[in-house]
Amino acid sequence: MTGVDSGPAGVDDGADRGPDGADGGFIELDGVEKVFDVRKKTGFMKRERRQVRAVDSISFRVERGEMVGYIGPNGAGKSTTIKMLTGILTPSAGRLRVAGIDPSRDRTRLAHRIGVVFGQRTTLWWDLPLVDSYRLMHRMYRIPDARYRENLDRLVELLGLDDLLDVPVRQLSLGQRMRGDIAAALLHDPEVLYLDEPTIGLDVVSKSKVREFLRELNAERGTTVLLTTHDLQDIEQLCKRVMVIDHGRLMYDGPLAGLHEAGESERTLVVDLERELPPIDAPAPARVVRVDGPRQWLAFPAAESAAPLVARIAAEYPLVDLSVREPDIEAVIAKMLHSLGDTPKPPPEQAERAVS
Ligand SMILES: Nc1ncnc2c1ncn2[C@@H]1O[C@H](COP(=O)(O)OP(=O)(O)OP(=O)(O)O)[C@@H](O)[C@H]1O
């Protein structure tokens, strides 16, 4: 692949490359809103019109080369934001720019500069061998031949796709298909990659392959990544910065450690001892929360390292095995929102008027 600075896929798309990343951000949102009009049948011949405020006055900037987690509970407005960033949806209000381009006005021009991966859907042709999807993208994006071959070779190697190129997409496992989708999103050298649940349903090995690849992509090519996920380890291993959205509003923007602190979240150290013993005498704030035979569960602050606790237990107890369990992302967010005094609200909809 070529460097991001040389532009995507050698296509002179005429995009405004001037100000992005300079005084403004590479991705910029100012007071962006998205309101959906929804009609609901409420009786015979009676319909009610409602407004759903999916995104509510969101402002943020992402600089070129950043990897940012964009997380929140179900229905928070994450996918709606991503769809506005790709130009699929038009904001109801506010200003939005990606690489200086207004996505909904210049969707085609933007398409040459962004890549999108939806974990739950594929952009590949289901019945065709994997490589045929790539050939179609080669034409669609008008990628020069030499660059296409160079990019394909590199992605095939990095993502371990060599033996899969001639396999019809429908025969690929979920992890193989995901790697195939990521390659498809990157063939045209996009400067920004939107990832919506890229590790959903993958086994541990596939998850770590995908994460490793994304880390390398970001480090080597400076690709800007906006990542939506329900897996806290995706964020932990990939993103220095995380944004939390809830009911369409931005509730937190900062490092993951800060999110843990705000939510006072805890990790769990699961310890197997040689035999059944009384609860381990752990230094506060760590404490035993469960004992079952020789196995004990200790909760400790997620923002702290497990190392001192492990060292102490290893020195004082007959330790056989141990593992650390990460807090559930929903639990972290729920605690953080609670600590901000954000009590659960009804769905973001308001009855506007009834129509017959
Ligand atoms: N096309 C649409 N028409 C009407 N309402 C919509 C539409 N798309 C999304 N919504 C509503 O907007 C809100 C935000 O949805 P969105 O899909 O952006 O959430 P999300 O954070 O991506 O959720 P999830 O984690 O479940 O994917 C929800 O209340 C949803 O029902």
UniProtKB/TrEMBL annotation:
The keyword Hydrolase does not apply. GO terms for biological process: response to antibiotic. Pfam families: ABC_tran. Residues 1-25 are annotated as: Disordered. InterPro entries: AAA+_ATPase, ABC_transporter-like_ATP-bd, ABC_transporter_ATP-binding, P-loop_NTPase. Residues 27-272 form the ABC transporter domain. Keywords: Antibiotic resistance, ATP-binding, Nucleotide-binding, Transport. SUPFAM superfamilies: P-loop containing nucleoside triphosphate hydrolases. It is found in: Cell membrane. GO terms for molecular function: ATP binding; ATP hydrolysis activity. GO terms for cellular component: plasma membrane. It is a peripheral membrane protein. This is ABC-2 type transport system ATP-binding protein.
